[in-house]
């Protein structure tokens, strides 16, 4: 896939699929702006990408800080002149019951997974409107489609991002700016080192953990070919549709799986 001449901002770029997405975009010819909280990891990645002949800019950014996100976008424009692609990939997850989960984790997931993405969207949209082009790719989760025990808080944050994405798609209709939504199942990345995977519902990973490279390839494909929604694996899309049509049956099925 070619991204020659494009400039992309990738949040959560220091590790996991964010790092792989950044590397893939750079291989495709894009200028990549790497955003995450870890300056050291970002600088290492930027140096590695620059050594290949591609162009990378590392900007340590906390997406929960609207001013920091605005500065990120301004630095991207100052360096590369434009922003063609935003990959909202930064994420945070902790799994526990509504009753037992600590409030700081509830607040953290909403702040990073939803508010963080919204900060980025609101910062890049004026740039994209001015240049009359752009593509926003929001990475949500299958947990935003169907929730279950110990995943209520995480699901709420991802469902919020999904709802905002659907609204944005309508608001951007008829313009050259696109918004795509990607909803993967659990991925075998360092993300689950901070999340207590043992408390995750078996339903969430019934088809196993996804391979990072497989998800990365799909995100890159979506980045090059805008789509309304892409669920990974596609079987989870069936559960999402079933939940809307047959909610009682779907809840029973989720409960039986555990």
UniProtKB/TrEMBL annotation:
- Keyword Oxidoreductase listed? The answer is yes
One GO location term (cellular component): membrane
Which keywords does the record carry?
Oxidoreductase
The chain positions of domain Ketoreductase read: 6-190
Q: Which SMART domains match?
A: PKS_KR (SM00822)
Query: By its UniProt entry, which SUPFAM superfamilies does this protein fall under?
Result: NAD(P)-binding Rossmann-fold domains
User: Matching PANTHER family, A to Z?
Assistant: DEHYDROGENASE/REDUCTASE SDR FAMILY MEMBER 7B, DEHYDROGENASE_REDUCTASE SDR FAMILY MEMBER 7B
- Designated name of the protein: Short-chain dehydrogenase/reductase SDR
């Amino acid at each position: 896939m070619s991204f020659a001449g494009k400039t992309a901002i990738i949040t959560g770029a220091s590790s996991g699929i964010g790092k792989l997405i950044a590397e893939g975009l750079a291989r495709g010819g894009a200028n990549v702006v790497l955003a995450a909280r870890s300056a050291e990891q970002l600088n290492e990645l930027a140096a590695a990408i620059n050594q290949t002949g591609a162009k990378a800019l590392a900007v340590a950014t906390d997406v929960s800080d609207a001013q920091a996100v605005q500065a990120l976008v301004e630095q991207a424009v100052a360096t590369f002149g434009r922003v063609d692609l935003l990959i909202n990939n930064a994420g945070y997850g902790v799994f526990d019951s509504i009753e037992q989960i600590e409030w700081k984790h509830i607040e953290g997931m909403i702040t990073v997974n939803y508010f963080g993405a919204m900060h980025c969207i609101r910062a890049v949209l004026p740039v994209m409107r001015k240049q009359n082009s752009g593509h926003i790719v929001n990475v949500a989760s299958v947990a935003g489609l169907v929730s279950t025990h110990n995943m209520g808080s995480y699901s709420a944050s991802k469902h919020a991002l999904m709802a905002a994405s659907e609204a944005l798609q309508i608001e951007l209709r008829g313009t050259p700016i696109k918004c795509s939504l990607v909803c993967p199942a659990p991925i075998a990345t360092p993300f689950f080192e901070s999340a207590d995977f043992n408390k995750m519902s078996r339903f969430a990973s019934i088809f196993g953990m996804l391979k990072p490279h497989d998800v990365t390839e799909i995100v890159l494909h979506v980045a090059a070919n805008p789509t309304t929604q892409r669920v990974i694996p596609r079987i989870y899309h069936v559960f999402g549709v079933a939940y809307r049509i047959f909610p009682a049956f779907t809840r029973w099925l989720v409960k039986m799986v555990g």
